Queue: 4 jobs
Job 1
Amino acid sequence: MRYFQYFPKLEYHTTEIQNGLPQKIRRIVPNMTVQLRSTVELGAYEWYKIQDRDRADILAAQWYGDSRYSWVVMLSNNMRDLYDWPLTNREFYDYMAKKYESCNECADGNEQSQDAIYQYVWKNPDTGQDLIIDSTLYAATPSDQRRQISVYDYETELNDARRDIKRLLPTTFQSFLRQFQQLMGSLSNVEFTR
């Protein structure tokens, strides 16, 4: 099943030059402005940790027998595009090197991000809760109750949090497809014309 075939259609008109003359062209395309939320019941799933070698199309082929179901992998995990997919170790290194370099031909941005402090944290000894504090309070706090989080560690944590995804079980996969088709079918009755 192709993902966009069930989206409501959007009609628009444009003018293109054909054979040296302007021609009015009518186009009908899937309405890409539709935003899907988790209205489809996921049902039974198991957790999977994305590895560096993994891509949505590869996982779809392994799990569901067809790489064209990569959209199911993405949608069932509330991923809207490939920017929601975690970076590989190499991509992450390159990303950090570029994002945090201070100037061309300066030190590597990875090193700079490891030295830069993202936030200071105080662990409340009574509750065990971590609280974000400023640098002044950090300096006055006993060393066994405080820690620093570097920019590098913060970015790593964000990227690693995207690695845990849901893998729909085979029975749930079929139910997910049926629900998605029904949802998109109810949207296809709506007129989207310009």
Job 2
Amino acid sequence: MLPFDHARPLSRRAFLATTSFGAAGVLLSCATPGLTDPYASSNVRLTVRPSPPTLPGPLGLRRLGLGGARDGSIYVPASYSPASPAPMVLLLHGAGGAAESFITRRIPEADATGQIVLAVDSRSSTWDGVAFAYFDADIAFLDAVLQDTFVRYAVDPTRLAVAGFSDGATMALALGLANGDLLPRVVAWSPGFLIDPHRVGKPSVFITHGINDPVLPIDSTSRVIVPQLRGTGYTVEYREFVGVHEVPNDLLHETMGWMAASGGSAARSG
């Protein structure tokens, strides 16, 4: 098991989009808390919801078989039983990453917590809402993947989370803010900026960031994002650590346990 998750280099297009739109998004959010970002369209909303499963749900690790070359993977621990809805996390990789490798480090945590982990590939090299200034194909695919998952597995709606790293963390925050009625818990490992769509629900948020991050420097990212979220009424757990663009083992353990734990904040409308 690798000690860290490292981002692969961004493509030029993705890098320019992240720096230009990212800086604008952070500054806009800081200047006018709660203002909807003009390029964060309403189709960031997810439409599916957990329901009693109607199809068989295999245990263990498998590819989803829904998206061709860029697809996704799901891991269901041996402790899972349809009679007891399980916690689940939707995982979003960083730029240039892939679900199959991203899920690997989370499997021991899933076994320890009874958590279903679902990792999805972006349709392009990174998430469209982050790099290309619109939400489109990625949201449609995420909806299809969640629909397939919910018909196969009993998922506890109060312990349903989204988590991402780097570009995936930025996307996870956008999804959580827009879908807090579905995703009551959001983890962002080293996010880049805050896309501020129309907000639905009030998810609890956990953010981690390395103080020496050379890819997404902390002063212009998480140290801006966290106060802005707290200032608009969100509960935010925040951990800075001595490190770079990565997810240290201790914080991976803490955040995965936080998402799977019972008794946390449920989604609230508003």
Job 3
Amino acid sequence: MTLNPVPAARAGARECTCDCGCRDRVPFCPAGLTDEQRAVLEPLLPAMLCDTELGGRPERHWRRTMIDAMFCIADSGCKWRSLPRDFPKWKTVHAMLARWNRDGVRADTADLLRASVRRTAGRYPEPPAAIIGSQSVHESAEGVVPAATSGSDSWKKVSGRKRHLLADTLGLLIAVVVTPASVLDRAALGDGRKGNGFQVVPRRWAVERTSAWISRRRRCARDYERLSGHHAAMVQLAAIIQMTRRAARTATTTTG
């Protein structure tokens, strides 16, 4: 797990040292966190190192603003350099997202959100079964996808990459693998004939809604990423947006 252990005496003792005014900004991005969504998501993120035994400086910018900026990129599909000016500098936001990706924060947060949504729905936190599906994605007009990671899907008439999705029966994302569009699901996620439990069953529709939810985010409607890992990160970020909203909606209904 990426959650840093925090001594009880120091929990919540520090705030960001923001001097750019981002803490007082008026939220305007449609994908930005509401108060209810923030209450769901922030406890699942790692504590600042200054609140742990490791020690360190407080984060410079307000974490809610940084998350809003990440969500804005995924939802609006804008370029990093086109990030609105009321957010921190794009390099700062990109560096935090890259650090969280490297440390596994993105994947762990998605897992915790999925478990929370499943518990609320009366399901086991860990799904006993999963469904595999794939979606070939056109690359952007800029043609940033390298030839080494690109391919052609002759069935869908798509040249570019393919994202192979593993989702539970509620359509919540478990894992994503990005490959050239010519790669089949069996090659990307395993072959059941080799003993890993993968079987072709007529329940493909359950993962199609996962693809639909992800494609609502403009950054995922096409492939704008030079690296396959960056595209996978945007897919998981889109899933985090969807699950955060669902968990907050459920919590509001329950308390109301």
Job 4
Amino acid sequence: MMSKYLAVLLMGVLAGSVAAGVPERTASGHTVVSTHDPRLQVDVPGSATYIGGDRWIIKEYADDVELHAFADLRMGNQVERLYWLQFEAYLPSHPEFHHSYDSKRHVTLGGMDFLVDTWVKSTATEDEPDSDTAHLKALLGAKGYRLPASMMSVRFVHLMDDGRKELMFIYSEDLAPRGLTAADLAPGGKDHGQWPTLESALIARGMGSLRFR
């Protein structure tokens, strides 16, 4: 059993190593290579541009987060499709923390089980400074890239180590080419009836947009 002192000391060491924001995984071309948790390579479409990678600790949750983002871009540097890959692991200092999700839907990708959920959302949101969305927007902003006003997204989450670690992939698309906004598709929105069909196709495109090996 790790002593409380040792756990706190280890958290400090890990936090210091993450502070520089240097990802452990590597991205080359359209592939992200992970040597652990899990060990694999992930390929995204050849049309995608690598936006960048980031690594930090969400201090409130003692959560070590590593993010890699790719996007298909339109003229004017606006994101059309987003491919967001993320690795997370709770630090040993908080053995009581576990990732949990409400979704009951599952798919298999690369021989691994993933939970699935979806949403439509405006991108004009205020995000917590430590949040993954805030870090994603910072990566995009640093390259001069812009998110569209409304996007529909599907998230795939693979849990490991009794929920202590996770591999997450989010695939998002701009709604503007369909003449829709997040408000249109929200419950009570004028086009909410279209959502079941759009959602099913979105999940299929998300599943087909990456390859594990």
